[in-house]
């Protein structure tokens, strides 16, 4: 639990992207994604442009292609839907290799794959270069209400508590003669889910009281607030990516 | 039920983002009053719990969304509608920013369905059912089960509405088919969600009834019982 509170996706490294202040990265990522989504789907070249941008940032952040591809598997349900669309879609049809496919469906499928993938890659790059603490600090500096950052802080902290308690309860079950395999573990787990919740809560409450007695007031420590906030130079440097993306999107809208 | 980038068009996503932002602002203002020393760690744990159960998801092939537990009813029961909606919203924001689960540009849609619609429907049902049903663990369990089940189904229909308004691919007037697919899949999810919500809440209510927001807010008549172990709180 005490191990640094960095999440599983964080890639420890020292790169220009890692060194950027978190609020800058969050803002850039959100703007980039909005630009991608606003691009008309027929402008195929625009998506190539976005892919180049993502690749440049990935190289700068020293994030490997293999890692990115493995982690973007989360998108799989949507990709499957995208492949179903050419068959489900309505309207004009074309024949490709003996299959009758809907033109609208083909574009729709492409739209989901391209925009979804670019969005996931942008998130992964943010996650790979930003620790949990910095992420919440960034949201705080972007004027996110205190109650929201507070819930987010506790959520990320208690995830470890929850996982730890679940592991302890499993060990306890197994040591009392339960021999769960594969899916049958679920039954034992489901029966104990209420107990898990209570145990995690009582542990979490102690964590909270310990924080309170050490001067926690619902806000991030003041030292964090000031130190490492983004400079104008950082904002400018990070703005290049969304700005280029917005230019590509604007051109694509004008051309189509 | 996360919507990925590109499934719903930009303008509709924008409108729902504005709607979600306005509603969340109300939640922040009302939630501040609720959040005390007892609720703060509970809100964090509820969010962590929802985050964990949402990790288990499977694709619904013909709808373009993933199916998983939502947790709106659990949040509404344990931390109330305002903080509860914020908890689910925080889960969705972190998932979108860090894991790329649900597009960032689609956050408004996802927050509207799962955080706002799910929690609101659940809390209205809870408020109604708790008044009618007997004040026993069974009554609470039934309340939790029914509200969780229906909130999941209604939240799923929120996606159908959004797809009807701004789906990027015309399914050829197949919107009723989509509605049926979503309702069917989410009825099954809702049963699972109902069982988990009911077990969790009933267990918590038996040991620490003071932790269940719905019981505090909606049943002020019963005097707070003193827990046998752990001293007076």
Automatic annotation (TrEMBL), chain A:
Pfam families under this entry?
CbiQ
Q: One biological process GO term for this chain?
A: cobalt ion transport
The family database entries (CDD domains) matched by this protein are listed as: EcfT
Chief place of localization = membrane
> Which parts pass through the membrane?
44-61, 68-88, 108-128, 182-201, 235-255
- UniProt KW keywords: Cell membrane, Membrane, Transmembrane, Transmembrane helix
Highest rank taxon of the organism:
Bacteria
Q: Does the keyword Aminoacyl-tRNA synthetase apply?
A: no
> GO cellular component terms?
ATP-binding cassette (ABC) transporter complex
InterPro entries linked to this entry: ABC/ECF_trnsptr_transmembrane, ECF_CbiQ, ECF_transporter_component
The region annotated as signal peptide is: none
Membrane topology for this entry? Multi-pass membrane protein
Q: Where in the cell is it found?
A: Cell membrane
- Check the record and name the PANTHER family matching this protein: SLL0384 PROTEIN
- NCBIfam families membership: ECF_T_CbiQ
Name by which UniProt lists this protein: Cobalt/nickel transport system permease protein
User: Upper taxonomic classification of the species?
Assistant: Bacteria, Bacillati, Actinomycetota, Actinomycetes, Micromonosporales
Automatic annotation (TrEMBL), chain B:
Topological relation to the membrane, as annotated: Multi-pass membrane protein
Please state the protein's primary subcellular location: membrane
Q: Which UniProt keywords apply?
A: Cell membrane, Membrane, Transmembrane, Transmembrane helix, Transport
> Known PANTHER family for this protein?
METAL TRANSPORT PROTEIN HI_1621-RELATED
Q: Which domain of life is it from?
A: Bacteria
Species assigned in the record? Micromonospora halophytica
- Could you tell me which Gene3D superfamilies the record lists for this protein? 1.10.1760.20
An annotated GO cellular component: plasma membrane
Matching Pfam families: CbiM
Question: Which processes are annotated in GO (biological process)?
Answer: transition metal ion transport
The protein here is known as Cobalt/nickel transport system permease protein
Transmembrane segments annotated in the record for this chain: 12-31, 43-61, 73-98, 104-126, 138-165, 185-205
The signal peptide stretch is: none
Q: Where in the cell is it found?
A: Cell membrane
InterPro entries, per database record = CbiM/NikMN (IPR002751)
């Amino acid at each position: 639990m005490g191990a640094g509170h960095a999440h599983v996706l964080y890639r420890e490294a020292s790169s220009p992207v890692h060194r950027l202040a978190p609020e800058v990265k969050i803002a850039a990522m959100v703007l980039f994604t909005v630009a991608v989504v606003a691009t008309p789907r027929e402008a195929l070249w625009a998506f190539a442009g976005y892919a180049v941008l993502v690749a440049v940032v990935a190289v700068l952040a020293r994030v490997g292609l293999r890692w990115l591809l493995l982690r973007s598997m989360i998108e799989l349900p949507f990709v499957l839907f995208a492949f179903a669309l050419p068959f489900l879609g309505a309207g004009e049809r074309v024949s490709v290799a003996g299959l009758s496919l809907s033109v609208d469906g083909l574009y729709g499928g492409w739209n989901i794959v391209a925009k979804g993938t670019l969005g996931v890659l942008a998130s992964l790059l943010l996650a790979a270069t930003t620790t949990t603490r910095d992420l919440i600090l960034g949201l705080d500096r972007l004027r996110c209400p205190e109650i929201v950052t507070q819930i987010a802080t506790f959520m990320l902290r208690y995830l470890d508590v929850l996982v730890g308690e679940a592991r302890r309860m499993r060990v306890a079950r197994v040591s009392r003669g339960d021999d769960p395999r594969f899916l049958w573990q679920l039954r034992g787990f489901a029966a104990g889910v209420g107990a898990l919740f209570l145990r995690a809560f009582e542990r979490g409450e102690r964590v909270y009281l310990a924080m309170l007695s050490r001067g926690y007031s619902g806000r991030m420590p003041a030292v964090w607030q000031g130190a490492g906030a983004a400079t104008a130079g950082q904002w400018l440097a990070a703005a290049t990516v969304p700005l280029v993306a917005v230019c590509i999107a604007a051109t694509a809208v004008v051309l189509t | 039920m996360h919507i990925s980038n590109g499934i719903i068009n930009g303008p509709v996503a924008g409108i729902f983002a504005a709607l979600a932002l306005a509603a969340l602002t109300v939640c922040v203002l009302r939630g501040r009053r609720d959040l005390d020393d007892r609720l703060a760690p509970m809100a964090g744990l509820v969010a962590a719990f929802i985050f964990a159960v949402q990790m288990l998801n499977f694709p619904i092939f013909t709808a373009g969304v993933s199916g998983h537990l939502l947790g709106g009813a659990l949040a509404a029961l344990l931390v109330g509608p305002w903080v509860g909606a914020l908890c689910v919203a925080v889960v969705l924001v972190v998932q979108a920013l860090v894991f790329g689960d649900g597009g960032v540009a689609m956050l408004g849609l996802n927050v509207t369905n799962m955080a706002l619609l799910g929690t609101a429907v659940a809390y209205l049902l809870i408020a109604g059912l708790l008044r009618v049903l007997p004040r026993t663990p069974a009554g609470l369990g039934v309340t939790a089960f029914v509200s969780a089940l229906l909130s999941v189904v209604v939240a799923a229909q929120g996606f159908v509405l959004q797809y009807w308004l701004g789906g990027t691919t015309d399914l050829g007037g197949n919107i009723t088919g989509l509605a049926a697919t979503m309702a069917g899949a989410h009825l099954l999810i809702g049963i699972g969600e109902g069982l988990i919500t009911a077990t969790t809440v009933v267990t918590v209510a038996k040991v620490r009834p003071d932790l269940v927001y719905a019981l505090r807010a909606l049943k002020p008549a019963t005097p707070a019982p003193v827990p046998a172990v752990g001293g007076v709180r």
